[in-house]
């Protein structure tokens, strides 16, 4: 697999509304990147653009389903990054996560029905079901927020 720095390259013609990142002196500079044009209002920043390999890696990250142990902060970051850079529709990302959650919820409910009522296993499975239901409600809130915004901001 190529190094992370191979996913970025300088692009002086890059439109700032597309996938680019500002990397300042505090953050370091990817080895494969070169200095590009700097915006007049931020002369201390270098602007980098994704290479085709980097675009592929970001697309893979955006579509990755991280359940059953979701990192909700990472998922929200995916939504923000997808919308801000125009990389993907945040509502589509929510739909993908919802499908995975519904699959896992169905599996947990089937397992819970197979357990004896009042057993320790049934109690644990009830906790899993409740967590998945709460995550589904959170996804509904995300969808409402992002559908109301459109694909940007």
Outline the fold blueprint.
Layout: E1 8-10, E2 20-23, E3 46-50, H1 52-63, H2 72-85, H3 90-114, H4 120-149
Antiparallel strand pairs: 1-3, 2-3
Helix pairs in contact: 2-3, 3-4
CA gyration radius, whole angstroms? 20 Å
The number of strands is 3
Q: What sort of overall outline do the alpha carbons produce when their principal axes are compared?
A: elongated
Find the structural class using helix and strand composition.
mainly alpha
Q: If helices are DSSP runs of H or I spanning 4 or more residues, what is the number of helices? A: 4
Instruction: Give the ordered list of helices and strands.
Output: EEEHHHH
Mean pLDDT: 74
Helix fraction, binned, reads 40-55%
Major sheet strand order = 1-3-2
**pLDDT below 50 for ≥5 consecutive residues: which ranges?**
1-38
How far do the termini sit from each other?
33 Å
β content, as a range?
Answer: 5-15%
The number of domains: 2
Largest sheet: 3 strands, antiparallel
Question: Quaternary arrangement of the chains shown?
Answer: single chain
């Amino acid at each position: 697999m190529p190094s992370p720095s191979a996913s970025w390259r300088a692009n002086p013609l890059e439109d700032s509304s597309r996938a680019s990142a500002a990397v300042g002196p505090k953050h370091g500079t990817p080895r494969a990147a070169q200095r590009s044009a700097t915006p007049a209002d931020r002369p201390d920043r270098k602007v980098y653009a994704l290479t085709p390999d980097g675009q592929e890696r970001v697309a893979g990250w955006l579509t990755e389903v991280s359940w059953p142990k979701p990192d909700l902060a990472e998922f929200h970051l995916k939504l923000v990054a997808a919308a801000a850079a125009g990389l993907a529709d945040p509502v589509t990302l929510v739909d993908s996560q919802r499908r995975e959650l519904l699959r896992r919820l169905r599996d947990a409910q089937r397992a819970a029905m197979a357990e004896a009522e009042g057993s320790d296993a049934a109690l644990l499975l009830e906790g899993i079901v409740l967590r998945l239901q709460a995550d589904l409600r959170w996804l509904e809130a995300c969808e409402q927020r992002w559908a109301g915004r459109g694909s940007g901001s």
